[in-house]
Amino acid sequence: MAELSDEEFTRLYGPWAGNTPQEAAVFFADYDATWWVAGGWAVEAFTGIPRDHDDIDVSVLSRDLPRLRRHLAGRLDAWGALSGTLGPILPDDDPDGSAVDVLPEHCTQLWTRASGTEPWEFDILLSPGDDTTWMYKRDESIRMPLSDALWEHDGVRFLRPEIQLLYKARGNREKDRIDLRSTLPLLDDARRGWFADALERTSPGHPWLSIITES
Fold this sequence. Notes:
215 residues, 10 strands, alpha+beta, two-stranded antiparallel sheet
């Protein structure tokens, strides 16, 4: 899907509520499974550099979709988001079904809101893996202990910045390049090396590779 301006996005899909990680922590405080904040908020938490945010990305394990739906029930409706299209996930539609059974093929993202007249609250990303192992959804051979993939700041768990940069490399938008420049100097040699290796495996010849090795 072509990248839309903020105004055109809001006209087509409606606004986002502008939640923060702390507000996500309140909403997910009684969620009985693993969750974390990803996206631009994960970059900001690591660098300490304020940046604009279109929404907030919250990740949960794909295998925990039934738990997530129970957590959302009566509070937020879930919509499957795939390639610019949205479709409601009705609460009574196979509530204990797996993501493969319930969601459209290749759908790994849910948008949530209280009703059709309310703004979107959380962009929820469904991640492969389990309670001990993080996996890269675009190549599940790239993995690490979940305890290494997440870190905590102000009581909220975030995705490690080198992993977030790996996701952002595919888009290579101007805001992604800004995040790269702000994050890369703060990564230690081991984290930078992991990022370079993972990027080379998934996107050989990516223009960021020379930046990683030269900076």
